[in-house]
Amino acid sequence: MSIIILPIWIIFTFVSEHLFEENTQNLSHQEQLLSDNWNYTYLSINFELIKEQVYGDTDEIFLGRIWDVDVDSDGRVYIADGGNVTIQVFNSDGSYFTSFVQQGRGPGEFLNVTHHTQIKILSDKIYVTGTEWMFTDKVQVFNLRDYSLSDEIMLNESEKMTFNADLENYSPKNIYPLENEQMLVSYEHIRSPEYLERDENSILYYLHDQNGSIITGPVLKQKDRTYLYQVYEGKGYNYYAFPFFGKSIITTSKDGLVYTAYSDEFNISEQNRNGEILRNIEYPFQNLPLTKRELIRIYENIDMSRMDFNEGDDTALQMIREADNLPQAWPALNNLLIDDENRLWVSTVVGNFDIYKWWVLEQTGEVIAKFEWPRDKPIEVIRNGFMYTQETNEETDLQQVVRYRIEFEEV
Questions:
Q1: Please, which residues bridge with residue 277 across strands?
Q2: Mean pLDDT, to the nearest integer, of 264-268?
Q3: pTM over 0.85
Q4: Are the C-beta atoms of residues 150 and 125 closer than 8 Å to each other?
Q5: CB atoms within 10 A of CB 33
Q6: Where are the alpha helices (DSSP H) in 219-339?
Q7: End-to-end CA distance of the chain, in Å?
Q8: Cβ neighbours of residue 301 under 8 Å, at least 6 residues apart?
Q9: 367-374 and 379-383 strand pairing
Q10: How far is CA 302 from CA 44, 296, 328, in A?
């Protein structure tokens, strides 16, 4: 079943002009960005975000690099700390509670905590994945009650070829725990110039059981990202997925539903764990136009030296100048989250590149709020009536998690 929802048509220009009734009350946009509280009106709904709590450095702990965040039903905040290679736990009131796991190769230990690391709290368990490096074959499961190691699930690499020969050169990347102790696992192809040259590549999703064995699949296929790359004779190759290319997005709900989208358009698919499409939620959206000249101008002012140790920070510009497959428009979507009331939170790309415009949708697809939010304060979790963001303290330049109370009110 497909749901096509056609509200007031929305057109975005490069200066992010709005042709629908939506405004920020009492504060100018610049003042809003500097405020602790955020107030918006969309149609007949007043939507307010009120800053309440900060989770960061305390007398007991110096927080390192924040890579992932989750929150339990009691409001405790769990932070994947890359600097200390552990999971830091804070009480709801912002006080430090404990940490669990230490760096190492033994049971319940982490080798790394990086941007691939994910924390997922489901029922009475904490699932931690992506602690090896880029690809992962292990799920560590901890008891939410006392943080003891409950299980260590190894994905059986040797059985993947027996199950499906198409999985040659594919490895598990992201793991999404589901109810009934099943897991949805994405498999991505090892990057190579030959793979990157293909017209279209796919991310494959397989359903695994609590022992790590494949049950069925692929239950879902998503389009892999488009990469620009350079080959250096005798040195290897360098590739990068620039944000102006589209990407596949996925999130799962607490009741096991899977929501997917491709960022080029506002079209969200709701599926069950077996890949059966239950419905689509679509909105008309006018993507911002894009030219090579604009991209060159943008990347002339961005430090991309981290991309390449061979050629320096000109690599990004070289790739863009030489590319013949650049898109003609920016993506429509950036991210998709789901809260514990099964509301969808969708960030869209608008002309002001300091912000994303977020849409809040009921599970039916009805839009109940829209608001602008700074890109440099990414929204991590929405739970228990609160929104949790990752921010940088302007005075100390240290990372922290910030909690905002969410209030909806009809006006």
A1: 271
A2: 98
A3: yes
A4: yes
A5: 15
A6: 292-299, 315-322
A7: 33
A8: none
A9: unpaired
A10: 41, 10, 21
